[in-house]
Amino acid sequence: LMDDVELAYRLGKVCEVLIGESSKRHALRSRLCIEFEMNCVIEPLQSVVSTYPSLYESAMIVGDTDCAMKIAWLYCSANFYLGMNLASLSKHFASCLQKQAIYRQDAFLHLAMAASGSTIHLSGRAIDGVKSYDELREIGENTNNPLLMWQVFISQLNALFWMREYLAVVSLAQKYPPPKHKRALAIMRSFYEGIASLSLARDTRQEKYRHVGEEAVKTVAKFELKSEWNFENKSKLLQAELHYLNGNIGCAGEAYVASIKSAQSHKFLHEEALAYELYGIFCVENKMIDEGINQLSMALDKYKLWGALKKCDDLQNLIDLIDD
Q1: Kind and range of the H or E run holding 117
Q2: Among 236, 247, 298, which residue's Cα sits nearest to residue 273?
Q3: pLDDT tens sequence across 271-298
Q4: Sequence-ordered list of residues with C-beta below 8 angstroms from that of 171, at least 6 positions apart, any chain
Q5: CA 149 to CA 136: how far, in whole Å?
Q6: Global pTM?
């Protein structure tokens, strides 16, 4: 997979240069959204996503509404993984859905609805007209649309993961095995499954969870070699959880701190919150109660900035329980 990604990335950069010199650059640029999915694995995610509005404009200039609506869906989806404030992201999704309805782009409308599900779930903000996961999954099955089925799956996995419903994360992942055609977001699946499985391995001591977690550590470490910016914080957090599982308390603490610093440096606010949260739980479980509450409070502040109000309520309940 990594060799394929590297090749696609290099070919894409050549295409960008050639398109920039073409008199038909708007028509050609509007088709770059597929190539930019590969860029997300190599280049800083923020810089890649910042190009999507201009791609959208190019598509609209030449009247390519198919590509424009696809780009609109991808832009909203990508901003979730950037940690955009969820209230702002809800507005972007609402605008996206409205445009897709106007242009009768049902396929991309359903994809955007599916992608918005995790934002709705975590923020507690409804978006008018969005169908449920079950309704969208049924549409995907009836129309034989594997892309919609994938989007429903990964959005539902997002929602479960961020609420720390780890058993549900693993159960959902087992129900929907990875497709043969790998997508860029497959790395997020590995990250979510890995964190969930390592936590469950600590709680249950079952080897099946350890195996999934260890494989995720290896997978994300490979991606880190391609882009330290995008994947270092995720890799460090997985390593922290594996060290904790193995009883290497000192190494675990260092890795949690490294993940926090990396997320800060690389501007992933929501994943910074996650690292604070998991470090706080680690501290509490290892009898460092005051430090644990301090780390969890830092996580709460970051989640508030993200706009994940439902997550904040859940975490505040945990802090109150520990404090009592």
Answers
A1: helix 106-123
A2: 298
A3: 999 999 999 999 999 999 999 999 999 9
A4: none
A5: 8
A6: 0.91
